Every structure is written in structure tokens, then in C-alpha cells.
Amino acid sequence: MREELFKIKEASLNNIKDAIDLKTIEEIKIKYLGKKGALTGLLKEMGKLSKEERPKMGALANEIRENIENSLKEKENIIKNALLEEKLKAERIDVTLETDNLILGHYHPLKRTIEDLEDLFIKMGFLVYDGPEIETVENNFDLLNTPANHPSRDMTDTFYFDDKKLLRTQTSPCQIRAMKEIGAPLRMICTGRVFRNDEVDATHSPMFHQMEGLVIDKNVTIANLMHSLDYFVKAFFGKDMKTRYRPHYFPFTEPSLEVDTTCPNCKGKGCPSCNHTGWSMELLGCGMVHPNVLRNCGIDPEIYSGFAFGMGIDRIAMVRYGIKDIRMMFENNTKFLEQF
Ligand code: DAH
Helices marked H in 19-52 — which ranges? Predict the structure, then answer.
């Protein structure tokens, strides 16, 4: 019996060693340990043994059964791991594969308008300057010659952090930064976000966009201002567009003007959207830079003069693309944005 047990052990362990797939492992299990298996068959013969022999053979048979079971388990794990490894290799995903369901983004109508404005002014010899959205009260108001009691400084209009810092209410502080950094002569524009404590409606948003322009040189006059702005309006909106200048007040320019253009809707004939005047109101504010502002930035107003202008970009984009409500520009509704 002992000999036969060892034979079974040796034969089964050899079989396990040679096994290369799970099916063979299962077959070996059945062949030796199954109900009709070799080991089970041998155990059935135990009754024939003497009383002394029986427990010894029983213990040996159990030991051998455990031995075979452990070897089977071990080999099974090795085969499973190898299979997994093979599967992982075969299933490696090729991320370079082409697919046609990529959604590509594109320009926002505001960004397109800003870049077109910048391109035009770059051609006119202006540099594109950039300034921060968090500004000092000094740059946003004081150095721009804004009197202490000017209504735009009011808490109800302006987002203050404290008595020195605010969210800029206009791009005009970029004038101050450019004059201090670059000095005269200077020809610059600056675009960006500005912030005012306005109620949201179809034409107002607490965050909107402006473009600022500034020219400083010797002998700059209001004729240069009018020529440059006329040129801009014709180049940007169309050759048949006209400009109209109305006197106005801004703290940082003297004299100050507001500019209207031919109504883009009726081309000057008169329609409900221009109140039948043929003119579209307030494209921009402008004027000759106030001598105090030049002095505040270290430029001698006896030697240099200049003009400045500022306009709302959101309105320009709205007119250009026929957008009726400013809120649509900031809602990020892709159905809306896809149209541009
Ligand atoms: N900063 C003015 C505003 O927000 C716009 C403006 C008017 C800018 C006249 C200028 C200017 O540079 O000369 O209403």
C-alpha cells in the first residue's frame, strides 16, 4: 500500500509539472483525487489493512492528498497569471487610433472680435498692452484725474477690496501703466475685462469688456484723433460708415467727445433701432489726454500731447453678430456658441 501511495504521488506530481493549461489541471484533479480517482480508489482498500497499519496509511494518504492539492493550486495560479499577462498584452489599447467623434472647440464671438480689433490697430502701428484686472485705486481713479467726489468711485458702482485695491472699472488705468512703463512717444491699445456693480439685464453685465487706445507724441492734435477713429470705423465696420462727434465729459481728457456711427441696421436711412435718427449711439468715448494725466505719469505736457479712446467690446460683438442679449455671451451654452 505504502509503495502504491508513493507511486500515485510521484505520477501525479509529474503530471502537474507537465501541465500547461487549466483543462489539464482539472483532468489531473479528477484522475487522482476525484470520486473514481486513483487515490480515492486506494483509500477504499484501507479496510483490508491490519489495525496497526490502517492509521499509518491513513495519515500518509492524507499527507499525499494535501501535497497533490497544494501542487495543483500552485500550478493553477502560475497558469492563470500567464494567461492574464497574455490577455493584457493582447488587449493593449492603441491611443493613436483615429476617431471621428472628437469635438473641437472654436473662437468665442468676443475673442474673435478682440483679435480682429487688435489686428487692425497693430496694422495702424499700435502695440498691444496688457494690464491686471485687480487694480489700484490710484491707477483706476487718482492718476486719471478723477475727482474725489466723482460718482463712478461710489461703492455702489465699484467693487472695492479695500481703500487701495479694486476690480478695475475701465481699461483706462492701462494708459497710466503704459505711460509710466514705456513713456513718450507711445501708441498702444489694451483690451480686457472690466467690472461694475450693475444689475444684470439684456444690455448690462457686472463683467464686460473694453478696449482702450492711447497715442502720445509731439504735435498730436484733435485732427489726428478724428482721422484715426474715422479710419478705424471704416476699416472695421465698412467703407460707407460715417462718424459723428458730440461733446462730453471724462475726467482724463480735455476736450472730451463721444462718437456715434452710422446705424449699422439701416445704414443711416433711419429705423426703429436708431430711433429714426440714422445714427447708432455711443460707439466710444475719446478726447485729448488731460495735461494732469500726462504730468501724473512723468510726461511733460509742454512737449507732448496725445489722444485717448475707450469702447465697449461686448456691444461691438453684439452688433456685429446680431446678438440681442449680452447674457448669451457668458452662459457658455454650446448651442449658442456653435453658431459663430
Ligand atoms: N473709460 C471710459 C469709460 O469706461 C471710456 C473712455 C472715454 C476711455 C474716453 C478713454 C477716453 O480713454 O478718452 O466710460
Answer: 22-33, 38-44
Rounded CA-CA distance 298/284 in Å is 27
**Nearest-angstrom CA–CA distance, 213 and 308:** 5
User: 207-253, pLDDT tens digit by residue?
Assistant: 999 999 999 999 999 999 999 999 999 999 999 999 999 999 999 99
Question: How far, in Å, from the CA of 187 to the mean position of ligand 1?
Answer: 16
Tens digit of each residue's pLDDT (9 = 90 or more) over 306-326: 999 999 999 999 988 989 999
Alpha-carbon separation of residue 58 from 8, 40, 49, 231, 269 (angstroms):
15, 12, 10, 109, 114
Question: Which residue has the CA at smallest separation from atom 3 of ligand 1?
Answer: 170
**Any ligand 1 atom below 6 A from CB of 212:** yes
Give Cα 151 distance to the centre of its chain.
Answer: 36
- Ligand 1 pocket member 241 (CB < 6 A): no
243-250 vs 207-217, strand pairing mode: unpaired
> For residues 206 and 196, is the Cβ–Cβ distance under 8 A?
yes
Candidates 179, 163, 186; CA nearest to 131 is: 179
Q: Whose CA is nearest to atom 4 of ligand 1?
A: 170
Q: What is the pLDDT of residue 327?
A: 94
State pLDDT tens for residues 152-167.
Answer: 999 889 999 999 999 9
pLDDT of residue 287: 98
246 C-alpha to ligand 1 centroid (Å): 14
Confidence band (pLDDT; 50, 70, 90) for 38?
confident
4 labelled as ligand-binding?
no
Closest CA to 79 of 21, 29, 24: 21
Cα(287) to centroid(ligand 1), Å: 9
Residue-level pLDDT at 207 = 96
Mutate to test the pocket of ligand 1, among 121, 146, 252 (most ligand atoms within 8 A of CB): 252
